[in-house]
Amino acid sequence: MEFIQKKVQVEEPDKVRIIRQDGHAGESGLPSGGLVLLIGLPGCGKSAVGQRLARELGLGFAQLPTQGAAEALAELAARGAAVVEVPHTLLADAPLRAAIQASGRVLYLMANAGTLAARKAKDSGDAQEVQALCEGLGRLMGSYEPLFMQTLHLLVPADGPLDEVEALALERVRL
Length: 175
Description:
Elements: E1 8-12, E2 15-19, H1 25-28, E3 35-39, H2 46-57, E4 60-63, H3 69-79, E5 82-85, H4 94-102, E6 104-110, H5 113-120, H6 127-151, E7 154-157, H7 162-174
Helix pairs in contact: 2-7, 5-6
């Protein structure tokens, strides 16, 4: 799988941070320890990859709830290391987004709309359903991509098979 390997500058109101796909934890100011938080659109593999990561790392796995997320995040952080799936809708809340970013390593499982649609409609085989899903997910991606980029610490290309995505995520976490 080929992926763009370049530095991108992300402007924030109070700073500019260089985010590198191949960066090491010490280079980018990543929080050490704490939680491993997975963000991305539906179908990117947050649940499957998160559960596999948790098993591989010997950690618990949790899904952040959409209601009471700030409290649940604080409780998970207080308990110690865990792998946490974060619903994409939670990133629309700026204070919660900042809390997520400060709670540990945030991995953005980035996949294109076609891949996401194919995964969501895997059993259907209906080309029209896949096309409709692809269009809807493309619009959703346009809305949430800036929020993902503002929140991530590490980028994990997620267009390939989930085993490959898991291996890449594990490699990023262990940096």
